[in-house]
Amino acid sequence: MMPTNYDPQFACVLIDKPIIWTNYDSFPHTVTSHNTAHSLKEQFDSGTIKPNDNFTHIFHNNGALTYTDKFSSIRGMILVVDDPKLCPHSNQVSK
C-alpha cells in the first residue's frame, strides 16, 4: 500500500538552512514544488528518491510552499521562516 502523506505533512524550516526528506518507504517517491506565486522563486524537484535515500534542499526566501510526489497523491507543505522561535523543530521530513 502506498503511503498517504509525508511525515510530518507540514514542516517548518529556517531560511538558508537545509531540510532533508528521507524515503523510508519501499517505493520510490519525489518531492516536487507546485507552481504558486511564491514557489516560482523556489522551484525544486528531487527527482526520484529511492527507498532509504534522501533529498536535501535549502530555501532562500520566506513563505509557505506546497509540494507533491509525482508517483502518488502525497502532498506536503513547508513554512520557511527567518526567526528560529517560529520553527523549533528539526528540518527532517520522511515518507
What features would you describe in this structure?
With 95 residues, the protein is mostly beta strands. It has one domain: Cupredoxins -  blue copper proteins (Immunoglobulin-like), CATH 2.60.40. The protein has no helices and seven strands. It has a four-stranded mixed beta sheet, with no helix packed on it. The chain has a three-stranded mixed beta sheet with strand order 4-2-7, with no helix packed on it. The mean pLDDT is 82.
Keywords:
mainly beta, Immunoglobulin-like, four-stranded mixed β-sheet, 7 strands, three-stranded mixed β-sheet, single chain, 95 residues
User: How many structural domains?
Assistant: 1
Give the helix tally.
0
- Sheet having the most strands: 4 strands, mixed
Note the beta-strand portion: 25-35%
CATH architecture: Sandwich
CATH-defined superfamily: Cupredoxins -  blue copper proteins
Fraction of residues in helix = under 10%
Distance between the termini: 13 Å
Tell me, briefly, the overall form. Answer: globular
> Helix-strand pattern, N to C?
EEEEEEE
Mean model confidence by pLDDT: 82
Spatial order of strands in the largest sheet:
1-6-5-3
Number of strands: 7
Give unreliable regions as ranges: none
Short summary:
The protein is about 0% helix and about 35% strand. It has about 100 residues and is an all-beta fold.
Helix and strand topology:
Elements (H helix, E strand, L loop, with lengths): L9 E5 L3 E5 L9 E2 L20 E5 L4 E6 L6 E7 L10 E3 L1
Parallel strand pairs: 1-6, 2-7
Antiparallel strand pairs: 2-4, 3-5, 5-6
